Amino acid sequence: MRPAPGLASIRNVTSSHIATKQDLPPTAWAVLGLLSFPGERTGYELKKWADSSLRFFYWSPAISQIYAELRRLEELGYASSARSGPEEVRSKRRYAITDAGREALSGWAADTAEAGPPVLKHGLLLRIWLGHLSEPERLRAMVADHLERTRSELAAVREAMAHAADVPEWAFPALALRWSERRHLAELELGKALLEDLAEAGRHAGAHPGRAGRQAGEDAPTPG
Predict the structure, then answer these.
(1) Residues in contact with 156: Cβ distance below 8 Å, sequence separation at least 6, in sequence order
(2) Contact 59, 47 (CB under 8 A)
(3) Of 118, 138, 159, 200, which shows the fewest CB atoms inside 10 Å?
(4) Exposure b/e, 85-97, CB count within 10 A at least 16 = b
(5) pTM over 0.85
(6) Could you read off the pLDDT of 108-153 as tens digits, one per residue?
(7) What is the dihedral of CA 198, 208, 213, 128, to 10 degrees?
(8) Residue 94 pairs with which residues in a beta bridge?
(9) Cα gap 171→176, rounded to integer Å
(10) Beta-sheet pairing, 79-83 with 93-97
């Protein structure tokens, strides 16, 4: 059965309103940003690059998110794709940014009003905040684990910096990685200071064993 006349055009019009520049989430701009560097890349390659760059200062989207955003970007005309030829054993779809996509991305990148403040969600600190429900040894162990993970991440950042060092097109990503290196170094210092604070809190609790019990009936430690 053939579709009713005009149905295809109606679908195209409807599709063009599904995603607009104003609707694009940061993930879409991040994926388009990955495409803004020279070369064409598959979704898998974009995921690998995000894991070795974006995750150190922003986050790394899941592979499913990357492909969803690639479809959205193609719909908007911000990206194009083509399948590989018979010379490759496995067919791959490679993506590239379009002129319209580069223009839109340049406008978004220059709009400082959309940058917003940094968002901190520190899982370890949330548990420290609830330290009255845990044992001091357990808290110190969590901080020690956090320090170990941070050292591992710092090593990964420095490895990424080494890869970007001699590539002129990656000069600005290298600046972001350098910032990330400093942030991880600061996180190590904060973690060490936190261990000292926990030790001091333990000594204070030992010197005032009845204090914790009295606090249970007091107001929460907030102003007002």
Answers:
(1) 52, 56
(2) no
(3) 118
(4) eeeeeeebeebeb
(5) no
(6) 999 877 677 888 899 999 999 999 999 999 999 999 999 999 999 9
(7) 0
(8) 82
(9) 9
(10) antiparallel
